[in-house]
């Protein structure tokens, strides 16, 4: 299995067309078809039901697309490290005890951000102190009348 085969499958699945995938990728239609056929042979199942008029995903093809997207995304992320001196920053978030923020859980479920989000629970004074010390990226506190300890940059 090669990354270019995965990208070919993803592109054909996106357009449901070998000819449109060929135009998009600047690769001949026969090269894409042969490459995908080799991958199908290697894995032992077909991704697509092909006819002269249309292309449809098989059940295993539909499931495979999700896995291939993850592989392609991870590959892109790994390649992006080559062009930068830093790794992705972790998001350090603290919320006041008992505060329910649905978007936090959505953030954790998102495969693009989940590994980089660290959540803690504390009281407002501790959260403000941690923000001042730059130990947190973001903090949610209860309303306080006087917060002179922080300045907005």
From TrEMBL:
<feature type="domain" description="HTH lysR-type">
    <location>
        <begin position="1"/>
        <end position="58"/>
    </location>
</feature>
<keyword id="KW-0805">Transcription regulation</keyword>
<dbReference type="Pfam" id="PF00126">
    <property type="entry name" value="HTH_1"/>
</dbReference>
<keyword id="KW-0238">DNA-binding</keyword>
<dbReference type="GO" id="GO:0003700">
    <property type="term" value="F:DNA-binding transcription factor activity"/>
</dbReference>
<dbReference type="InterPro" id="IPR036390">
    <property type="entry name" value="WH_DNA-bd_sf"/>
</dbReference>
<dbReference type="InterPro" id="IPR000847">
    <property type="entry name" value="LysR_HTH_N"/>
</dbReference>
<comment type="similarity">
    <text>Belongs to the LysR transcriptional regulatory family.</text>
</comment>
<dbReference type="GO" id="GO:0003677">
    <property type="term" value="F:DNA binding"/>
</dbReference>
<keyword id="KW-0804">Transcription</keyword>
<dbReference type="InterPro" id="IPR036388">
    <property type="entry name" value="WH-like_DNA-bd_sf"/>
</dbReference>
<protein>
    <submittedName>
        <fullName>LysR family transcriptional regulator</fullName>
    </submittedName>
</protein>
